[in-house]
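Consider a typical record:
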Amino acid sequence: MKDKIIKATLDNDDEFMWGEELSKKLELNTNFIGKNIIHLETVDSTNDYLKKINNQVEDGTVVISDEQTKGKGRLGRKWQSKSREGIWMSIILKPEIIPYKAPFITLIAGASIVKALNNLQVPAKIKWPNDIIINNKKVSGILTELSADIEKTNYIIVGIGINVNNSEFDRDLKEKATSLYKEHYKLSKVDIVTEILHELEKLYKDYIDRDCKEETLKICKEYSAIINKNVYIVKENEKELVRCVDINKEGNLIVRDSNNKLKEIISGEVSIRGVKGYV
């Protein structure tokens, strides 16, 4: 089945259509993020779709799909992305930065989502570095993918999945996943996307234009679900019980181990799990 594509240029009077939902214009005041939006009825993965067309689209282009057939998260995990149940979107960014600076953009995305949801009166928190939590269950995740040469970043794709209207989850997700609907928050997907893109551009421009991380780090700490908590750091089949202490200026997690020594954790292949649950 050929993808149905709706393109909305948001600096004119075109309306952003989301399936049969509200025909409401995204009221964006951004400079470049979301000025070009590609809306799909279905796609394998919004991240993979943007990779294929990266040379054909401008910086800040957003792809949103009603459904993903092969949605994915970190470490190759599957992301349940059924039709019209959530927000499945990806943003392509083309910053002129050295590749080692790219991982911080995952924190920027997380800070943007948690701030946007709290702006909409949803008391969300962030589980470093890329999970958004409500009532100790995951409501949103981020997958950031990078294309780069040794000293040049070609593009960064920020994939965002948010469970909005999900009423049920697969058996292996029931204990750790939730949705805005299940937590009794009824929000317009258009409003959620608008808030996220506003917050994302502010924090992203702070970082790229001024090398300023302070606001992102402040949000990540203020809304942290794990600072001052005991958690397991999980890598492959090994796990270590630690206490989360802080997030440093590089965006890495500072923990205290069982020997009372401070350690710096870089996200990479590491996962975090709560002692008595997901968080």
User: Anything to note?
Assistant: The chain has four helices and 13 strands. Helices lie at 46-52, 104-119, 189-210, 214-222.
